[in-house]
Amino acid sequence: MANYCLSLETHSSLQKSDLTKAEEVKLIEVGEGPLVFGDGLELISRTKLVVAGNPSGRLVESSDGWKTASVVAKFKGPVHRLVTAATVKDG
Fold first, then answer.
1. 3 DSSP 8-state letter
2. pTM of the model
């Protein structure tokens, strides 16, 4: 069981908070740049999450326990809509 929480900070920084150490919050270095305009997060597995936002949704993956991560795919939706949530279908 993981003892951490992943969150997206206002300025597009992905963060990992250790739940056993209330004051410990670490920035996760994300390859492919910051998660600009990221809003909603949907955890798909222990190593993958979707970041909903504008102008696109992004699939982010980590292989080191969320010390670092990389954007491995992008989905570009309608630019006239504000995306604030992600959902997983059949998974």
1. -
2. 0.82
